[in-house]
Structure formats: C-alpha cells, structure tokens
Amino acid sequence: MKALAIHKVLLAMALAFVCSPSAVATEYGGLLAEADKVRGSDPAHFQALLDRLVREQNSATEPERRHLRLLQNYRNAIQGNYQAVVGDSIALFDQAPEPELKYRSALLVANVSAVNRDYLMGLRYLDHALALKDAVSDPALRNMGDVVAGTLYNEFGHYELALEQANRLLSSQPDPRNRCIARQIRVRALHGLARAIDEDRDVHDAIADCAAIKEGIPLNAIRSTLAEYWASVGKKQQAVALLEATLPDATATGYTRLVGEVRSMLAQYHLELGDAAKAEAHANAIVAIKGQDFRWLANVVARQVLYQVALQRGDVPAALNHYRLYAEADKAHLDDVKAREYAFQLSRHEVAQKNQSIELLKSQNQLLRLQQEVARKDMWNSRLLIALLVVLAGSLAYWGWRGRRTHRTLRQLAQTDSLTGLSNRRHFRAQSEAALALAKQRSWPISVLLFDLDHFKQINDQCGHATGDWVLREVARVGRLHCRDGNLFGRIGGEEFAMTLIDCDLEVAELVAEQTRRAIAGIDANTVGCTLPVSASIGCVGTSVSGHDYEVLIAHADAAMYRAKVGGRNRVCRYQPPTAGGAGTAWRESDSAEVVLGAL
C-alpha cells in the first residue's frame, strides 16, 4: 500500500475534532454543548440533537445560531456536501465577531478544502486559523490548530513537519481527545518516514487512549496504519486478520473514506495471499460506494484488483474494461499528488511573500518617520535620506529578483518530474503538440517512441523502492544520451517514458530506439545490490503512418509497445496499420490488448 493510502481517511477523521464545546448559557446552549461533545463518539445521537436544535432555533441567541451553523456545516462535511460546507464556513469566518468561531470555521474550511482537493485554499485557511490561535482562550481548542496542521502535513506527504506538530502537541499534555488524534498523527508520520514503530508505545497505547474515549475514527485509522506497517514488514496474514476483525467497527463510524481505505488494503492483501474471491468482494464493495472521487486511491487499488482477478479467471473482456478504468484512475491520482505538492510549494511561497511585504511595510513606515525628522534638519540629514532611499531601492530590487527566481522555480516544478528531472506528462504533451503542429506546416517527419520498463514491479517488490527510483533515474540518464538536442524526452507514467524525435523518419527512429533499448539493458543494478535485470519494451510510430495527432500517435505507439511485450519483452516494435479486412501481417490495437491480457 502506498504511503498516501490512508491520508484521505485521516483528513476526514480530523473533521470530527474541529468543533469545541461552547459555554453553556441557556438550555439551548446546553444542547449545543452536548451535540459538540458527542459529534465524534456517537454519530446517531449527534444527528438527533442537531435535528432538535434546528427545530428549536427560534429560541436561540445570535451567537448560538452561529454555533448551530458550524455544527450543520460539520454534518454536511460528514455527508460529503463539501461545496456547501466551504461556502458557509467562509461566510462565518468573515461575519462572526467571536475569535473562537472564526478560528473553528477556518479550520473546517482547511480540512474540507483539502478533502475536496482545493489544496491551496485549505493551506490558506490553515494559515488564517493559526494567525487567530493566540486569541482563543480554550487550550484544547488552541491545540486543534496543531492537530489540523499535523493532519494536513501528513496529507501532503511532509511527514517530518507532521511529526514535529504531533510531538509538540503531546508535550503540552493535551486533553484526551487531542492526545488521541495527536498520537494517531504521530503513528502515521512515523510510518510515512519508514521509521521503526514501537508497537507497544506508539500503537497499542494510542489505541487504548482512543478506545477509552470511544473515538472510533482515529482508533480505526491507527489500526489501519498498524496493518499497513505489518504488511510492509512481512506480516501480511496478521495484517489481514486485524483488518477483517476491525472492519465492522470502521463501518460503524459512517466515514466512507475510512471504510474504503480499509477495504482497499484487504482487497490488495487478499489478492497477494491468493484469495481472489475475497479480494474481488472487497474491491466491488469499494466500487459500489456512491459519490466517490475517481482519483481516490482506494478506487485505484480496487480497479487494479478487479483487473487482476478477471485476468486470472480468463475473462478477457472484463479484464480489458477493468484495466482501462484502472489506468485512467491511476493517472488521475498521480496528477492529483503532483497538484497537491504544487499547492503546498505555492502556499509556502505566498507566506514568504506575505512576510516580505510586512517587512517592507515596516521599512516604509520607518522611512516616513525619518523623512519627517529630516525635514527639520540640515543638508546632512538630506544626504542621509538619500542614502536610505538607495538602500530601500536596493531592497525592492533584491526582493523583486528573488520573487522572479522563485516563480521560475515553481514553474519548473510544475513542468518536470521531480525524480528524473524529465518533462512530466502534461509538459511533454504540450511540447509534443506544438512540435507536431510546426512539423505539419513544414512537412517534417516526426517519430514517437513509447517505452515501458519490463517487470519493474518485481524490482520494487524484491529490491525496494529506493532501488526502483535509482533504476528510473538511470533510464532517464541513458535516454538523454540518445535524445539529440531539439528532441523531447519525458516520463509520462510510473515506469513509462516517451520520446518525440523531430525531423526524424521511422527508419532512423528505430535505430534510436534500438540504441536506447540496448543502453537500458546495459544498466547494472548490481551496483545498488539488486540482481534483477533491467530492460524495456519500446513501440515506434511515425507521422508518415499515423498522422500528426498526438493522441493517435501515442495510442499507436502504445499498441506497438504492447506488441513488443507480447513478443517476449526487451525489444523494439514498429506500429503496423491494419490492412483491409484485417488480413496479412497487420497489427490492430484491439488484437494487441487481447494478446497482452492473455500473455500476462
């Protein structure tokens, strides 16, 4: 299971801790406080109380009605009505005079925006909330800023920052609820950092803390992390037993994201242990969840499991359909991960710019005071003012230069693959489409190479992901050696690369492909302790056969690549268009898919 597998569950779970009981001033206020108290431990009672509060809201004061709106937003978040939650919570943040209500509304916007993949808004409102933290009198509510920050840092894969937040919160002796969620954040961060976990101290004590206050969501999230940890250290049977035993508890929380993540782990582990029937049952249960996001990692895992089960069963049409859905979901999920990191970097840049603006305003205010004093002094003071203006101009020039450099860095992050330094899928496509348009005008031939590393999953599984990353970087290195200046080279998938060769016909492209294939086969993974060979299957296509449409070229190159895989892998194949009636040696894309599925 990937490191981000449980993060959506953790983020949804954090919603249960955004609100905090308000002071009880009236009978209606007492009902509000009671609803706040049971919102995470007793969902059914919370729903009943909220319905009563809505019926009796005519007797509420204005502050109590604002509190009711916050609780209604919380219920909408549980039910997945994220747009309504964000809109009303932002309105509450803008309108409410109470610092605590503004603080809680900002935290709710931060959580729901992150769940809804509006990452930049989530980070902005987290900053708004943290800016109000000192104005909040309730220590438990103040701690929630650290809780949400830690949860979001886990969500964005910045586990060191999440671990710092959790340790800081735990050192402040928080109340039982905040201690429970802080320990859950800590366990998630430790696992994300691939550090050793002390099961007694880090896991079982945390489970006992959450069980004592009947907080089912963090309790089951910790269990899921423990199961994922066990599976990573070879205790897959033990992980399955834990997940099967706790699935009813996870289902009882009513959080579909938590249930989906638990089932996705069960589907994957059952399949790896050889129980295809149970794996298929859990995968179908995930697919049947209403209103799920196509990019949700649990959906990606479910689609992959259904594809593999259909393949084992020999049901080729079903396998084809599941593989198509899996490939689309997986690519969407990878794009989402990149968008999340881009939003995080952009948010940090905005914070830095804000701090720079504050410092600049301070400098400007100081300059105004000096100008008033200079007006009463002689020429020496005038010279001093000129010197200060020069310093200020230099500061402005420096910060302008630094801002432009940061912008260039962010643009590069958005266009390149962070692991290999190659163009990412989106940037490669944009460059290729521009090259194809120019080539069509000038009658240049263009060829496209699409290659996929053979048995790359075995390298990851048997030699570790660090070795897999090394192999990907080596493939990028040797690929650059065979990609002349002016041509395009990008990583467009997990282990999938592509080249666009400009002013290059198919015969020359095949020579380049063969040279690249040999270079990749010459990569010696023994230098990093892996005895498995490295090779690639490469498909070639040219505009002389397939025209100048990027999608058509990629599709034909993909068909040729799969032909190379069916033919034994570690080879180069040229795309062959179908002949009339499908006779002769023609190669059709539909035939390619069927043969691949039969051979895998």
Describe this structure in words.
The protein has helices at residues 7-14, 27-38, 43-55, 62-78, 82-95, 99-115, 119-132, 139-155, 159-171, 176-192, 199-212, 216-232, 236-252, 256-272, 276-287, 297-313, 316-374, 379-415, 425-442, 456-463, 465-481, 506-521, 543-546, 550-566, 589-599, and strands at 446-453, 488-491, 496-502, 536-542, 572-574. The chain is mostly helical and 600 residues long. The protein has 4 domains: 21-137, Alpha Horseshoe (Serine Threonine Protein Phosphatase 5, Tetratricopeptide repeat), CATH 1.25.40; 138-269, Serine Threonine Protein Phosphatase 5, Tetratricopeptide repeat (Alpha Horseshoe); 287-415; 425-599, 2-Layer Sandwich (Alpha-Beta Plaits). The longest helix has 59 residues, at 316-374. The chain is globular. InterPro entries: Diguanylate_Cyclase, GGDEF_dom, Nucleotide_cyclase, Rev_trsase/Diguanyl_cyclase, TPR-like_helical_dom_sf. Residues 1-25 form the signal peptide. One of its GO terms (molecular function) is diguanylate cyclase activity. The chain crosses the membrane at residues 380-401.
Write a brief structural summary.
With 600 residues, the chain is mainly alpha-helical. It contains 25 helices and 5 strands.
Quick one: biggest sheet?
Answer: 5 strands, mixed
CATH architecture of the largest domain: 2-Layer Sandwich
| Helix count, DSSP H or I runs of 4 or more residues | 25
**SSE succession:** HHHHHHHHHHHHHHHHHHHEHHEEHEHHEH
Which strand order do you get reading across the main beta sheet? 2-3-1-4-5
In the CATH hierarchy, what is the class of the largest domain?
Answer: Alpha Beta
- Tell me, rounded to a whole number, the average pLDDT: 82
Rg, rounded, reads 29 Å
Q: DSSP strand (E) fraction?
A: under 5%
Number of strands: 5
**Overall shape:** globular
Distance between the termini: 22 Å
Looking at how many chains there are and whether they match, the oligomeric state comes to single chain
Coarse structural class: mainly alpha
Instruction: Domain count, please report it.
Output: 4
Helix content class: over 70%
Q: Unreliable segments (pLDDT under 50, ≥5 consecutive)?
A: 1-14, 583-600
Question: If you consult CATH, what is the topology of the largest domain?
Answer: Alpha-Beta Plaits
Q: What's the CATH superfamily of the largest domain, by name?
A: Reverse transcriptase/Diguanylate cyclase domain
